[in-house]
Amino acid sequence: MKPLLYLGLAVGLMPIQTTLLDHVSVTGVRPDLCLIAVSLIGFFGGRSDGLLMGALLGFEQDLFSAGDAWVNIITKAVIGLSGGLVGRYVAHVTPVTVLPMVLGLSVCSGIAFMFAGAGGPDQLAAVRVVLLPQALLDSALGVAAYWLLAERFKRDDSLV
Amino acid sequence: MFRSTSGTRRVLLVLCALLLSLVFVLPKQSRTLLQTIGKPLADLVAIPLELFSSADRRVGGVWDRYVALRKVEEENRQLRREIEFLRGQAADLREMAAANQRLGALLRFQANTPSQTVAARVVGRDATNWYRGVLLDKGEQDGIQAEMGVITLTGAVGRVVKTRASSSVVLLITDPNNAVTSLIQRTRDEGIIEGTFEGKARMKYIPLLSTVRIGDPVVTSGLTGGFPKGVPIGTITNIQKDEGGLFQTAEVQPEADFTKLEEVLVVTVPRKIEEPPAVPPTEKKQP
């Protein structure tokens, strides 16, 4: 079950991210499906799963992005690991606790991108136009995904 | 209900026999007699007959309508299927006609442009929100390399930043990380175009003494990057002069609509290499 799910995500997530998400963009900003998936994989599947899938999906994302070929690998791997840590140490998890988790991870990812120079010289505009709207979209979608997955996968089962 | 005695029954039998014999012996007269006798009976019978007939018509009508409706329903379903099919075909044809028109225009443009180009289709957008980029369905196999310019019918689009065997990534000129050397067409002043987060472009390093005006067209200078000289970039919409600054900065509205990019041309060689005309071998004249 778990390998199939991961394989499906590895193969199917990037085409969706690059083609279909344009139709659901809000003011030109699309949710980062890889970020949401990686944080939830870490949360449900554990730190190592989050780290490895984060690196894999981040690598794919770098292949299909105009940016440097390392920013996504590192940020997504760290996000997967962080999701795993949150899943391990937070005792009582509800959508309300998942919301700040994904929001925080998305904001941290955005800051990493800005440090890597992706935001250009106008940093305030980058925060206003990309970082904050994407963090809000990611957290909203992350909570919805958690809501759906929480019924199917219990954390103790860890996607087995 | 009616209990006839044997005498009455005999009388009735005799009357019936007489009536029948009368019918045979005097057919014409008997018919009139029968009609006269039968008229009240007919009127009497007509009442339930009408009722039954009416009921029958209604039931028959309902039945007929039900049967007919079933047929109509089937026919309706069939027609709906046909309409859906024809609508799909019409949409396909419209899409094909639009694509044909676009590709025809692109081919004409490709034939007229002085550069060598490769046509490519936009198949996706950048995988992150941090870069304004598009993915093309052509790559190194088709002769596309990094730093090549990408144009459309309307103007410059961006430059190739990553290539793989059969796909490539283009950074649009509206990305803040992009920089393209440009020229104000009217004044011939040079500057550098870079993108903004609002989806526009900004021309920097315009000389302070330049007489640039709003509405001036901006084109590629052809000095750097993979663009030939003179490809339209956009139109100046706003000019900023900082006090004490050495340069002016202008906002540029790009010519190309980056939200509707479908087919583009990748400039593989900015200028076509003119082949020398074939010189026919001169015949040496014999003295």
Keywords:
heterodimer, A: 160 residues, mainly alpha, Arp2/3 complex 21 kDa subunit ARPC3, globular, B: 287 residues, alpha+beta, Thrombin, subunit H, six-stranded antiparallel β-barrel, 37% helix, rod-shaped, disordered C terminus
Question: How many β-strand stretches of chain B?
Answer: 12
What would the average pLDDT of chain A be, to the nearest integer?
Answer: 85
Task: Give the structural class of chain A.
Answer: mainly alpha
Oligomer: heterodimer
Mean pLDDT of chain B: 80
Task: Based on the coordinates given, report the CATH architecture of one domain in chain B.
Answer: Beta Barrel
Q: What letter string, H or E per element, gives the SSE order of chain B?
A: HHEEEEEEEEEEEE
Question: The CATH topology of one domain in chain B is what?
Answer: Thrombin, subunit H
List the helices and strands and how they pair.
The complex is a heterodimer of chains A (160) and B (287).
Chain A (H helix, E strand, L loop, with lengths): L1 H17 L14 H13 L1 H17 L7 H19 L5 H21 L7 H30 L8
Chain B lengths: L5 H20 L1 H86 L3 E10 L7 E4 L12 E3 L4 E8 L4 E5 L7 E5 L5 E6 L5 E7 L9 E4 L11 E10 L5 E8 L8 E7 L18
Antiparallel strand pairs in B: 1-2, 1-12, 2-5, 3-4, 3-12, 4-5, 6-7, 6-9, 7-8, 8-11, 9-10, 10-11
Helix pairs in contact in B: 1-2
Write structural notes for this entry:
- The complex is a heterodimer of chains A (160) and B (287).
- Chain A is mainly α and 160 residues long.
- Chain A has one domain: Orthogonal Bundle (Arp2/3 complex 21 kDa subunit ARPC3).
- Chain A has helices spanning 2-18, 33-45, 47-63, 71-89, 95-115, 123-152.
- The longest helix of chain A has 30 residues, at 123-152.
- The radius of gyration of chain A is 15 Å and the shape is globular.
- The relative contact order of chain A is 0.16.
- Chain B has 2 helices and 12 strands.
- In chain B, strands 1-2-5-4-3-12 form a 6-stranded antiparallel β-barrel. A 6-stranded antiparallel beta barrel of chain B has the order 6-7-8-11-10-9.
- Chain B is rod-shaped, with a radius of gyration of 47 Å.
- The interface between A and B is medium-sized, with 35 and 27 residues.
